[in-house]
Amino acid sequence: MLVGTNYVLKGEPCLGLYELNYQAPDNSGFHRYQIILVIRDDHPAEYRKDLGPSKKFKGIDQFRIPGGVIDEQTSKIYIEHTVTELQDIANHMRVKGRWDKRELSGANKIRE
Length: 112
Hints:
The chain is α+β, with helices and mostly antiparallel strands and 112 residues long. It contains three helices and eight strands; from the N terminus they run E-E-E-E-E-E-E-E-H-H-H.
């Protein structure tokens, strides 16, 4: 179960930040949402911010930025970033626009 929250703090430990397109609750069309997972009282809490109609983000990929890692042996979570750090990365990714998926996957190197 995931707890929701209506605020995040800049220096809070951040498990991840996602920018995804979802149908708006009022069925007015798809909107881009910034979803931030923070750790509160040793449990993840989710914050969602409506960034507006997804049309405004044409040419910009949806993305997920991890802010920590889970040790598969102990199941312990290690947080490596704060809310502000991941928001800065997200701002940079939005400015960059679309990513070349072949470059990211290394597919370009297979042909060489």
